[in-house]
Specification:
heterodimer; A: 451 residues; mainly alpha; two-stranded antiparallel ribbon; 14 helices; 6% strand; B: 338 residues; two-stranded antiparallel sheet; 82% helix; transmembrane (chain B); Cyt-d_oxidase_su2 (chain B); membrane (chain B); Cytochrome D ubiquinol oxidase subunit II (chain B)
């Protein structure tokens, strides 16, 4: 149907599934952390506002987690369906983290069910809060394990390849490869950040629309402070990732930064365009900043793209992905800091509409940054599926039917997206927080049939 | 001492069996919930069904993920052959699982009593076992070929084979049988007489097609793969035990008491038959391309996987027991008092 080969179509379908899954996976890892914090504060301060926050977040979370689970199952199967040769090779080496990921997922699934259905079951609420801990651990551990697999694809090690056969396998060395620490740190911190920013955006939006109540103001304060902390963590993780790239995957950093010639005192190029001769125009240049970003030294030498053979270079448009991701990261850090300053300085109003609009924009923008970041990371290792060992063309299926499957999955994700939005809207529109608070907390004993 | 590959396949087979039971309960319950709604009997059983399903639906899904991740881990060659040949049935199964899982959440946490959501939820529950059973069917051989251009599924052969259709039929009726047997037990525990009367009727109704389908599948297997059939005949006593458990289960339900024992008998009926089928399938995993020893991963990885598996069980079993005590064996919860 399309005039495209199976490998290209497989790439398109895999990207589609992963980009869709990333939205729900990020929420899946981050939101339980926020829920757990809110419930804990609610118990400690005996403040039903926070408990209600945890309850309402959890309720929305069940919908997103369902979509996350089914799209995660999809990518799990698609790996073998679309990349059979790759899985045949890599299955020998990275089966361990894949297997452990399902354990973490299992653990999370068991306790999520328990957490959802035991809100009013214990006399001491701390027991219910304790059930949230395994959910947080399960979610974060599954992000950890699956990220080690992705890290392995970037910097494969722990095996030898002799005539197409893998030998001398060391599963732990493969799992804890050079890319693992920075990747895991960056993935987890940015998931926490994005979840906090999305929840902050919802609170800010409600205050903007309805001059929000006490409940929304408390939600805003909690989520923006969390955003600020996680944004700092993410910035550190991002900086470490750049230093990792400079050392282990210089071609990705060079393509991302449009750094063509190896030189010291390298400038950082922000946005801009390329002309036909690959010369940078219209960009902001920050002198020596790339050297600092890559090696922590303003005079250090940074490897240019010219050192990489032409057929092993990633496409140059990933530069924009990198810049957009970083810009959004700094925007979220800045806006959350601004809120905290406004809140601390008594004369200033931390609920100024402009500030709130900034926070409201921060949620969707952070989610976009997750997508840009993944596109940068994944397209940045093209043409390799297993850097240095196997290209994406060698790894893909030979089946001629990928085009139809692509259309099938476009339709599926459209249905899931629409369903998710419709149900979430319905869930919260007819049951505003104020109403639920009145209904639930004056008569705690009589509220058993909910959830 | 068992070899690593034998430990590996046994572990995987246990998980596939676990999935068979929990998913059958889930798939069948979804269908019965929709059927009851469509025939305006939903007030009798849907409360009961959702009390059971809500806390466990996600766990059901993990059993499946566990199986296929484990399969690729222990036997990477299977990823190649199944991956190359199953793109279409595999993708259809993914779509069905995705629709079902998310629409379940949409219906039960979001807009309650939405008939469209319930229809998709119920219908996909019967189509998923049909599409997943394709993988077992093609493992018998004769449905895929390896040529210069790769591995291809012979879809024409698959769609016209009596064996593949009898497997599909067996999968569907077993789902309804296992599920209604479980719901009978659950309704009895809940002390819900009207629900019990209804699901008990379902259970008795679906028992005969299940045993008939088992027999026809056996006969069709003798046409499809005579060697496998011969190995199964050598294990005739295993299948005999399975039939005995079936008779115990149906007898107990017919008598109208000891529903707990009846469901345990159902579990043994399928356990014994499933392992008999599995044992007679060996040494082939995928006839004739992959055998147990040719497809296995290297020893280091096999040991690592087994170690992780044991560690994982130490974590999972107490957690599962906790979940079951909270939602399955807690009489107050089952009766709807919590």
């Amino acid at each position: 149907m399309f005039e495209l080969d199976s490998a290209t179509l497989s790439r398109m379908l895999t990207s589609l599934t992963l980009l869709f899954h990333a939205i729900f996976a990020t929420i899946g890892v981050g939101v339980p952390v926020m829920v757990s914090i809110a419930e804990f504060i609610g118990i400690k301060k005996k403040d039903p506002h926070y408990t209600l926050l945890a309850r309402r977040w959890t309720r929305g979370y069940t919908i997103t987690v369902a979509v996350g689970v089914v799209t995660g199952t999809a990518i799990g199967l698609q790996l073998s369906l679309l990349w059979p040769s790759f899985m045949q090779l890599a299955g020998n080496i990275i089966a361990l983290p894949l297997f452990m990921e399902t354990f973490a997922f299992f653990f999370e699934a068991i306790f999520l069910g328990a957490y959802l259905y035991t809100w009013d079951r214990f006399k001491n609420p701390i027991y219910h809060w304790l059930l949230s801990i395994p959910v947080v651990i399960g979610g974060t551990m599954s992000a950890f394990f699956i990220t080690t697999v992705n890290a392995f694809m970037n910097t494969p090690q722990g095996f030898k390849l002799e005539d197409g056969n893998v030998t001398s396998i060391n599963p732990l060395q493969a799992m804890f490869n050079p890319a693992t620490p920075t990747k895991v740190f960056h993935v987890i911190s940015s998931s926490y950040l994005t979840a906090a920013a999305v929840l902050a955006a919802i609170a800010a939006f409600f205050i903007l629309m309805k001059k929000g109540s006490q409940y929304h103001k408390k939600a805003l304060k909690l989520t923006v402070i969390a955003t600020f902390i996680f944004a700092i963590m993410t910035a550190i993780a991002g900086d470490l990732s750049a230093k990792f790239l400079a050392e282990h995957q210089p071609e990705k950093l060079a393509a991302g930064e449009w750094h063509f010639e190896t030189e010291d005192k390298a400038d950082l190029i922000v946005f801009g365009t390329l002309n036909e001769d690959n010369e940078v125009e219209n960009a902001i240049r920050i002198p020596n900043a790339l050297s600092f970003l890559a090696h922590g030294d303003f005079n250090a030498e940074v490897t240019g793209l010219e050192e990489t053979p032409e057929d092993e270079r990633p496409p140059l448009w990933i530069h924009y992905m990198f810049d957009l991701m970083v810009s959004i990261g700094f925007f979220t850090l800045g806006i959350s800091l601004l809120y905290i300053v406004f809140w601390k300085v008594k004369k200033w109003n931390e609920h100024h509409p402009l500030l709130l609009w900034g926070i409201a924009a921060g949620g969707p923008l952070s989610m976009l940054a997750i997508e840009f970041g993944w596109v940068f990371a994944e397209v940045g290792r093209q043409p390799w599926i297993l850097r240095g060992f196997m290209t994406v063309f060698e790894g893909s299926t030979t089946s001629p039917h990928v085009d139809w499957m692509f259309i099938l999955f476009v339709a599926l994700y459209a249905v899931l997206a629409v369903g998710c939005i419709v149900v979430l809207r319905k869930m919260f529109k007819n049951n505003p927080a104020e109403l639920e608070l009145e209904h639930r907390y004056p008569q705690v004993a009589a509220t058993k049939e909910d959830d | 001492m068992m070899s690593y590959e034998l430990i590996g396949i046994t572990v995987l087979w246990i998980f596939l069996y676990g999935y068979l039971i929990v998913a059958s309960i889930d798939f069948g319950a979804g269908f019965f919930a929709f059927y009851a709604k469509a025939t305006k009997k939903d007030h009798i059983i849907n409360q009961l069904i959702s009390r059971y399903l809500s806390p466990v639906w996600e766990v059901t899904n993990v059993f499946f993920v566990f199986f296929f991740v484990g399969l690729v881990g222990f036997f990477p060659d299977m990823a190649y052959y199944f991956g190359q040949s199953l793109l279409i049935p595999g993708s259809i199964a993914i779509v069905l699982i995705a629709i079902r899982g998310s629409f379940y959440a949409f219906e039960s946490y979001g807009s309650k009593d939405n008939l469209v959501y319930m229809f998709f939820y119920g219908a996909t529950g019967l189509l998923i076992p049909a599409s997943l059973s394709t993988a077992l069917t093609i493992s018998e051989g004769g449905f895929i070929e390896e040529t210069e251009t790769g591995v291809h599924l012979l879809s024409g052969e698959l769609l016209t084979s009596p064996y593949s259709w009898s497997v599909v039929f067996l999968a569907i009726v077993s789902v309804l049988y296992i599920s209604s047997m479980f719901l009978t037990y659950y309704a009895d525990r809940a002390g819900d007489q009207p629900a019990l009367d209804l699901v008990r009727k379902y259970a008795l109704f679906w028992s005969s097609p299940t045993i008939i389908a088992s027999l026809t599948t056996f006969i069709a297997l003798s046409q499809q793969n005579p060697e496998h059939y011969q190995r199964a005949i050598d294990l005739w006593w295993v299948f005999g035990i399975s039939v005995a458990f079936f008779m115990v289960a149906v007898f107990l339900v017919y008598q109208g008491k000891n529903y707990g024992w009846a469901f345990i008998a159902v579990m043994f009926q399928f356990l014994v038959a499933f392992f008999g089928y599995g044992a007679s399938h060996l040494p082939y995993l995928l006839n004739p391309y992959v055998t147990l020893s040719s497809g296995v991963t290297n020893e280091t990885m096999a040991i690592a996987l087994i170690v992780v598996f044991i560690a994982g069980l130490l974590l999972l079993i107490p957690s599962l027991v906790l979940l079951m005590r909270m939602f399955l064996f807690d009489a107050d919860y089952v009766k709807g008092k919590k």
